[in-house]
Amino acid sequence: MKAYDGMYIDGAWRPAAGPDVIEVVNPADEQVIATVPAGTAEDVDAAVRAARAALPAWGATPPAERAARLAALRDVLAARQDEIAETVTAELGSPLKLSQAVHAGVPIAVAGSYAELAATYAFEERTGNSTVLHEPVGVVGAITPWNYPLHQIVAKTAPALAAGCTIVVKPAEDTPLVARLFAEAVHEAGVPAGVFNLVTGLGPVAGQALAEHPGVDLVSFTGSTAVGRRIGAIATGMVKKVALELGGKSANVILPSADLARAVNVGVANVMSNSGQTCSAWTRMLVHRDRYEEAVELAATAAAKYGDRIGPLVNAGQRERVRGYIEKGIAEGARLVAGGPESPREQGYHVSPTVFADVTPEMTIAQEEIFGPVLSILRYEDEEDALRIANGTVYGLAGAVWAGDEAEAVAFARRMETGQVDINGGRFNPLAPFGGYKQSGVGRELGVHGLTEYLQTKSFQF
């Protein structure tokens, strides 16, 4: 076990204000692998003050130079990709192959995309007799989750720095080690002191202090809808800008003309990826009544293959939460066709890949975000019924549509109340905007839409 010390504030590792620490547990074997300081409001204040002091110079730095620092950061992350992957595997429990490709690979691509955007975005433009300026919003307070720990930090830090903002990041307490590694990469990339700051700590202490700090101009949060509501209330009460990426209960709609086997297999893989700990996972599979039992059989067979291929859940509390939802599904009358609430291993926070059939739209497992490897399969009568079911939750983060004809799938997707829809298994695009409708959040991340979240607008009239 390694005991880490200090917070990254104003370009250096500084001693924490208090003596308390957070234990980092490997969810695969339940062993403590490290401790990090548990930050206090005093630590947050020091970080915000450093960010405010650095803001004028960084905001005035030419975009080309900001782009160069982001390109250097991308290169440092690429050089340390193996170390990043190993770190995420140790603290999150994800299989190393997934950590390499997704947890390390995607943040590198995102950092690179913002290096390019910083160099090419029109921060100043002419409209009629006016010059319109796009200026940094100021100091950003970023509160990030544990499920994609580095990606979420980069998805907030890279556009903030590209825009000319400075930032204070409070990472999730379960996965702080890769956040510290990222701070090292920022330092190595030559980002000026105070532009990026890191405070590890608990959400109700350090996270709340960051959201409430009067020196923070924008709060960017990714996590549960319940916590997002509290942060939104704090931010709006102080007239701060807020960006919230929250929960999801995404529908995977398989139209009758689709390639059923491919749609089901890809759909199951989507739910099982990252042990189901993905806010945009397609956790509701909607199948026409005429092909329903065939889809159920395909899904049960596919899920059974993931028994030894997915990692544990992040902690014991998350495991019990997911097991509780599985028990709730059984109690409400859903038909269990794969998996179940029993833990498949004696050690580690594992949950079996689970599939429910005969799920109806009003059931708890069809309405609430489970955040585990649990798939609900729902039957629909016709396209209007499918649309009603797909749009019938408080969430609207992502989704998928499958059809034999792309135009048919697109026509259905246009009527879905959700921020992002994959058509016939479309690939992830780091330049496409990501964010939700309804209670799935406010604002967008990634690409140019993610950059504009960190800008405010001024105009000169001539």
Question: In a few lines, what is going on in this structure?
Answer:
The chain has 462 residues and is of the alpha/beta class. Helices cover 42% and strands 21% of the residues.
What do these coordinates show?
With 462 residues, this protein is an alpha/beta fold. The chain has helices spanning 41-60, 63-79, 81-92, 96-120, 149-163, 177-188, 203-212, 225-237, 260-272, 292-304, 316-331, 364-367, 383-390, 406-413, 447-452; strands at 2-3, 7-9, 12-14, 21-26, 31-37, 124-127, 130-136, 139-143, 166-170, 196-198, 218-222, 241-245, 251-254, 284-288, 335-338, 354-359, 374-380, 399-402, 422-423, 441-442, 455-461. The chain has a seven-stranded mixed sheet with strand order 15-16-17-14-13-18-19, sandwiched between helices. The protein has a six-stranded mixed sheet with strand order 10-9-8-11-12-20, sandwiched between helices. Helix 9 (260-272) links the parallel strand 13 and strand 14 (284-288).
Structural class: alpha/beta
Regarding quaternary structure, how should these chains be classified? single chain
Placed side by side, the strands forming the largest sheet appear as 15-16-17-14-13-18-19
What form results from the Cα inertia axes? globular
- The Cα radius of gyration reads 22 Å
Q: Outline the biggest β-sheet.
A: 7 strands, mixed
Mean pLDDT: 97
Strand content: 15-25%
**Poorly predicted residue ranges:** none
How much helical structure, as a percent, in the residues?
40-55%
Number of helices: 15
| DSSP E strands, number | 21
Tell me the span between the first and last alpha carbons. 64 Å
